[in-house]
DNA sequence: ATGAAAGCGCTAACAC
DNA sequence: GTGTTAGCGCTTTCAT
């Protein structure tokens, strides 16, 4: 690999001048030409590691998410990436696999690699940001809060849980179960809250047996749905706590010949790649891409030196109601 | 941020000793203890940028894929990640968005950031690897070949196309269309080949109107399926060139009241998050995770200095036939 | 506008 | 086993 010195020698200038050419500051026309020509000839690309070491910062941001196989997060990632690359930043995607330890490792890498900032969908409410905050790197929380006083972008989760439930009530269902995500994740708890609120508002029972905490994954949805169906008095409808739970629940229902709307189904989150007709399942669409875009903008602002007090932005959902009921 | 010098001073040793402690070479028990204690107190983490600059290599590999929203690639990413992190490497995921220019940018970043190697699912047959190869960084191709003499892991695409088609033939369909991926992508072309072969072997027509080149995405599948249905003489079955095309095609069929098996459907690739019964659609399962695992192992071997001639590994598929026909 | 030179934080010879 | 020291390739004062 050619260095700045090789280019300088070939172009007959100093290393400093080569650096200036690549950083767009005042250099005379002729020298610019000479340097560019020499660089091309040597296939020179500036060594980013050296630049980062010298500058103590790099145009890279980290996006840490708990499940790279969940389309909700990849859609968000696209939003982040579009904004970041527009601004000349690269995004490195880190999959914490919902484990606090892995997450911690990635946060340390972000510090140690001089990344400019982090967008984080926390693995749990036990996530620690001490180190990264001590390092002075800006962090924006997405999807879930963190317990720290930092910027954040979240969905209107209570609303989402409530609307999903209300749609089922309006469609005439009355024994409405809820398969929620893990109890230690904020979004899950808030959606449960919405489900409770809606039931209470309509004088329906929130039978504890109808609430299942599960994982935010397909198998979690499957297991919980099986349990619900095995109940002495099964529900006649179910609210799925996220997209993957929805997929799992519907799979099980299909296997039992209870394809919606035989049993009512409402899902918080878009159904990824569904082949179902949109008329049979109520979906509360969560603007994942928009969340990514917003978070990236906030982070870039912070990187740019913005130091106003921390803000949290709550994104509104869009409901897409089933038109068919049983 | 504390440096190695700060730690050395506090622990009463030389910077070199601190370095040794963090790199696991012979240091006396007491000094190790002193250094660890000092490091903890100062919240010291080794600066990776500096280490990378010095060592001229970093324990990071890049995984460049054309569509981060496609579960096929994220599943593969998990495989890569599992192997890599086991070996102490981090993976940075780069989304080329199927654009050769973006891909080129990421490859340059990989060079400039001293990453140890790259796993690449090429955006197109025009992908250039000149620079990265000149930089001496190992590259392993996945999913698609590259036209360069490098290691690769690919699926048995012809087989996949052929098996998918034959399943439909055996189920009694005779006018079998194929919605393929882009014509400039190897995997797409090979699957077309398999489709042709199967039809020929059974004396069925490969009507040119029944072959549609499209994008490897849901909307590509949708458009092509609409076109096929609008034909004066529409097909009675269709082979989808990948998972997302399959989703799009089935969506359109459902909207037209032609849910499989009213029209036969076979998909090359697993249907992500499907809520359909497995009995109605034939699926050729592609071992995406395994592909990632294999590629990561090959890359790590190369990084470790392995210099045997380039190998290409072809992964076998598993067919999961529909049990219901019309 | 340009060059000389210092130094970012770490590692790896090389001495002892 | 441990310390000294010279860079890795770049940016950035400070002179000129």
TrEMBL record, chains A, B:
CDD domains linked to this entry: HTH_LacI, PBP1_LacI_sugar_binding-like
Keywords: DNA-binding, Transcription, Transcription regulation
GO MF, one example: transcription cis-regulatory region binding
Transcription keyword on record: yes
Chaperone as UniProt keyword: no
SUPFAM superfamilies named in the record: lambda repressor-like DNA-binding domains (SSF47413), Periplasmic binding protein-like I (SSF53822)
Protein's recorded name: Ribose operon repressor
Lineage, broadest ranks: Bacteria, Bacillati, Actinomycetota, Actinomycetes, Micrococcales
Gene3D superfamilies, sorted: 3.40.50.2300, lambda repressor-like DNA-binding domains
Coiled-coil stretches: none
Superkingdom of the organism of origin: Bacteria
